[in-house]
Amino acid sequence: MSTSFEQARTYAAGTAPLPFPIPAEVTVQEVGPRDGFQLEPGTIPTAEKVAIIDALSATGVPRVQLTSFVRPEAVPQLADAAEVMAGFTPVEGVEYSVLIPNLKGAERALQTPADCWELMLSSTDAHSIANANRPTAEAFDRLRPVIELGLAEGKHLVGGLATSLGCPFEGRTPFERVAWAVALYADAGVGHVTIADTAGLADPAHVHEIASRLRQEFPDLRITLHLHNTRGLGMANVISGLAAGITDFDSSIGGLGGCPYAPGATGNIATEELVHLLDLLGVRTGADLGALTTIARTAVSAAVRHPLESSFEKADPSWVLHTPPQRQELAGK
Which domains does the chain have, with CATH numbers? Predict the structure, then answer.
């Protein structure tokens, strides 16, 4: 049990629970080293990325997404994928994932200690054309050999589905379309999918509808929610996902990230904000908020050299109290 979890439970003691059931435990995947860094304009040295990965591995998060084996010219920030994979120190009990765009990327990943391969597909044709230069069905056909190789190699495969909670080109994504895309993966033998709010268009009602109906239609499938905080609804959407029974969430240290092929897409939900919320709700993650906040404010802030999206760049956890003043004075003075 993490220190921050204990502190949050003491702080929230006596508070009535939410008026609906939520899971007792959640798995958090830290995606900052890949999704968080990919759009950073300044090159982050490989040694700094490795140091951040090693620090994140010690925070108690059970899954960390490290990099992507995409073409270097497509995402220059991740051109050092092989060096990152060779440089980090795996921690027992932590699963390490990489994003695999195609068969060539999968073959490169086989030479690394990656436990999990994350695949990417768009639920909507318009975003698929923007991202992969072909509609969804054609893009999936190109993923089939990757899936076959991953299954043969015993890899944990996760089928990502961008724009499942809204598309900047097509609008609100209907459940039927998302279910069709999920079925592509499920029928090919992939037992875990990620439902992504790529452009930060999700709202709590849509999240609950998509997540709860997918759990009903695909009861044996593991489902991760990948949310963004573009319009300030990130944590509200997390609560909606919890209410739908979701127990896996992606998040990014410092709230970094975004999609280069989705207009207006800004950062992922911040890992610090997610763990803070879950600690307050009594949902165990195993992650320590204090350690995450320290990494965000120091190593990550120094690496990206700009203000972070996370509120925890300045704010402390709710349970941190301050010495009462003896007279009227401005906070921080």
Answer: 3-11+23-313 (3.20.20.70)
